[in-house]
Amino acid sequence: MGEQAQLLPGTLDLLILKAVSLGPLHGYGVLLRIAQISGSALLVEQGALYPALFRLVRQGLLKANWGTSENNRKAKFYELTTAGRKRLREEADGWSRLANAMAAALAAKAEEL
Amino acid sequence: MRFFDALRGLFAKRTADYELDAELRSHMEHRADDLEQVGVPRKEAERRARVEFGGYVRFKEESHRAAGGRFVEILGQDVRFALRVLRKSPGFAITAVVTLALAIGANAVVFGVMDAFVLHSLNVPDAKTLWGTAYGDESGFQSYENYVDLRDRNHSFESLAAFNFDFPGLETNNQTDGAAAFATTANYFDVLRVQPYLGRFFHAADEHGSGSAPYIVLSYAYWHNRFADDRNVVGRVVLLNKHPFTILGVAPPNFHGTLMFMSPDFFLPIVNQDQVDGTSLLHDRSSQGTVFETFGHLKPGVTAEQATNDVNAIGDALAKAYPKDVSHKESKLIHPGLTAFGGPAKAFLAGLMLLALLILLAACANLGSLFAARAADRGREIALRLALGSNRSRILRQLLTEAMLLSFAGGAVGLAGSVVLLRRLATWQPFPGAPIHLPVSPNAETYVVALMLAVLCSLLFGTLPMRQVLRTDAHAVLRGGGSAAAMGRRITVRDVLLVVQIGICAVLVTSSLVAVRGLLRSMHGEFGIEPHLAMTVNTNLAMAGYSDERVPVMQRRMIEAMQAIPGVEHAGLVAGYPPLVYTAGESVNVFRNETTDLKQANAVAAPYKYVVSPGYMDAAGTRFLAGRDVSWHDDKNAPEVALVNRQFAEKIFGSVGGAVGRYFKLQSGMRVQVVGVVENGKYVTLTEDQQAAVFLPFLQWPVSNSYLIIRSRREAQPLIADIKRSLKQLDAGLPADVESWSSLMDVVLFPARVATAALGVMGAMGALLAITGIFGLATYSVSKRLRELGIRAALGAQRREILATALGRSLRLLAFGSIAGLILGLLATRVLASIVYDATPRDPLVMAGAVLVMLLLGLVATCIPARRALKVNPLVLLREE
Question: Where are the transmembrane segments (chain B) (predicted)?
């Protein structure tokens, strides 16, 4: 599984939005998708996912519907709303800028200054 | 406790909760499925899935909060818990609900009545700009001619309408019934901007002088009751006192005329009133009885003050132009609806509202001390909850929820009761024959007020125990065991509450005693008549079709027939209404014999005028002071004579003895000789100042509408039967209402009776609250000190000493509160004096009564706890703990 990193505060919401943007998912599916797209590098505590999901639904970024999963079980599926899609774009841009800036800053060497 | 079960169902676990559970379970099952696929046995897989998931309850709560549903859930929990707690002490819960129901109900009823009379204006469009000259304000516009001048000369009103009362007999399908009508100017409905429900109204264009508009408009209620909603009545001809009138239309259901407390059966043009009544008053400028009220909408931009000045200027001009007929005093404009009763009625309702709020306050104080006592008893429970990690705000919220729950239950019950009461008030007919209509209806405002009061109550008494909870030291309580708060010597919140409560109750008790005493006095006051043992018979011979010359002949035959009934001591007749009936009175101007310029300003008195038959004074129980009665010879061929009362005699002639044989003049210039002087009396209201009165012989002043007065000591029922039988022998078709004079006086006594009843109820509620308050405190203090009392008893304390220990504090507080309340009550009851006749708070009997009542209340309320204190068996007690 390799090394795992702790989530920075506020990143869980973004990860969930990203995961769901690739197709409707139920809660457990969101976890699996996050593990998959992050190469299992990011660890999400299973139960902690749900308060975040409910918060995103309440903010109107996600919508939820009951359906049947691939395991033939009842499950609640989440998908992005238009507002969610917009928020994902904004947050992803912001995050990239931050990550690039951080990477550049940390990569700086004395002789380049 | 079905009620609580039902309430609990309302807050059953919500579906949202189930959904969340299902979702989280689904998550764990999916995880278990995955684990099973990699070879973990199902049981083990499920266990691992649960472990990996983490704190199920915590995440569930967090999810709830994230979804925004937490508040409702906590509220639900609080409510469920509160219901459980209250169910454990049903006595407390029921006491609290009943107390609150009474207090909130009383407030809702008083508010409902106040809402109808004070806060609302007449139910017509644009009532805000409707102003008029009220009857009883002495503005002097009570004649039709004056109304016409006011209407045509003013610059302030868009147009002016006026109305008067008329009580004709209405005949349709050969059946005649007495009815109550408004005789209105033809522009009445147009001025009020009211639209007909059916047919059409009459308009200004319909009248062309006296007797020109034989039309009537029915009120909706009369159309419904008398004509059975028959839409074909429009165009039908009915007979009013035998004169044909055409029904033009029906007024809308919510229109009850222009008096708030009376709804007429129909409306007829005022120009036709003379025709119906057989009078000729319309163009008599000096007549004070042809117009009751004048009103209209102010023109845009005209203020009430400008309009008042305008009206006063016209009044002064009229008084100058017609000095014989018009005397004008200062006019005041008011919103029509309550006439001159408005002021006193509003003051009384405001006073009543204040008392009702006091009751609510007392109830809150009562419940507050109960709550505080309970919180003290629950000190251990609260300490335990604090120790187990519950936070104080949650506990406080819990207590407040209990208070809210009780308040809403009490508010709901109280509101339901008040709705029933208000509905009954709306259909109340206090006097047969008088078309009283109280426009009260339980409306949204009443509900909102009741709800607000309930919330206010719960905040008031729910927050009282808070200090106690906030100060609770969990460790100390749990270590120390037993009670959280000891009954110390210091003054506690509960003591203050009890004093406040008893003080309020004393105010209420004093007020109601003052009112009751005032009413009793007014029942046995000096009326100048003796209504007791007197029957009255109302007949209107014009209505029955008698011609003018036959009226006095028939009236004399009726009097003689009444005198012939066995057991009848005296019988006589008075025209119009007898004194003190329907607050009706007519006054005339009188002048000294020497006065030649008979303008109104020179009038020496304006006594009430009555037209009476020989024998009336004896029948009415009025004593002669000097001279003789009018006789059967005082007819049109004899010189004009009159009887006067003592006030008249002393005012004009200086003394009773000097009046007999002297002359005075009437407005017409007619000289009248005084032949007798009778005692003073009350004539229109019980609270009036002493008025002069003059009594003219009916053979010289014939009137067709009259009351026979019959004095007899016989039992009422057979006497009434005999009266009816002998009248039938005279004229089988003559409608005659037989009633005792006392019951006719109900209208005059009505305000005092209503005031007394209302204050009596308030007083009783106050007393009830005082009992429960004192009882609660005494019981509590006895139970708290039971152990101490036991030890004292074991050590040989006397009964008196034990009682003093157990109840001394309660009784001291009672005495303190009572004295404060009595003083306040005596101050407050000054307000009553304006409504309740002879209500003086400085009545030693009232004082003694109030003190006695408070003592009795204290005795009753401490009796049971005292017995408990005396029964203390030290052995049992000491063994128990």
Answer: 92-114, 348-373, 403-426, 446-464, 496-520, 757-782, 813-833, 845-864
- Statement: residue A32 has pLDDT above 50: yes
Distances in Å between the Cα of B650 and the Cα atoms of B88, B625, B678 are: 76, 12, 12
Residues forming a β-bridge with B576: none
- The C-alpha R_g of chain A, in whole angstroms, comes to 16
pLDDT of residue B144: 85
Its pTM stands at 0.64
Decide if B177 contacts B164 (C-beta within 8 A).
no
- Does B54 contact A at CB distance below 8 Å? yes
Q: Domain A11-106: give its CATH architecture.
A: Orthogonal Bundle (1.10)
> What are the boundaries of each domain within chain B?
10-71, 89-121+342-485, 127-336, 490-524+746-881, 534-745
Is A46 within 8 Å of B27 when comparing Cβ atoms? yes
Q: How many of the other CB atoms lie within 10 Å of CB of B662?
A: 16
Residues of chain B numbered 756-775 and touching chain A (CB < 8 Å): none
User: Which of A8-17, B116-125, B233-242 holds the top average pLDDT?
Assistant: B233-242
Each residue's pLDDT tens digit, B578-602 = 888 766 677 888 999 888 888 777 8
Give the integer Cα–Cα distance in Å for B133 and B136: 9
Question: What DSSP designation does B640 have?
Answer: P
DSSP conformation letters of B121-175: --SSTTGGGEEEEPTTS--S--SHHHHHHHHHH-SSBS--EEEEEE--EEEETTE
Q: How far apart are CA B131 and CA B340, in angstroms?
A: 13
pLDDT tens, residue by residue, B864-873? 777 777 776 7
- pLDDT at res. B7: 42
Domain range list for chain A = 11-106
CB count within 10 Å of CB B672 equals: 20
Q: ipTM of this model?
A: 0.88
Residues of B with Cβ-Cβ distance to A29 under 8 angstroms: 30
Amino acid at position B597, single letter: D
Residue B178 region, left (φ>0) first, then alpha (ψ -120 to 50), else beta? beta
Percent of chain B with pLDDT over 70: 86
Task: Tell me the nearest-neighbour CA distance from B42 into chain A, angstroms.
Answer: 15
Q: Over 80: is that where the pLDDT of B782 sits? A: no
Contact B258, B336 (CB under 8 A): yes
The residue to which tokens 């400028």 are assigned: B285
Report which listed range, B142-156, B370-384, B437-451, B808-822, is most confident.
B142-156
Give the CA diameter of chain A: 61
Residues of chain B positioned with their CB less than 8 A from the CB of A75:
23, 26, 30
pLDDT at B3: 46
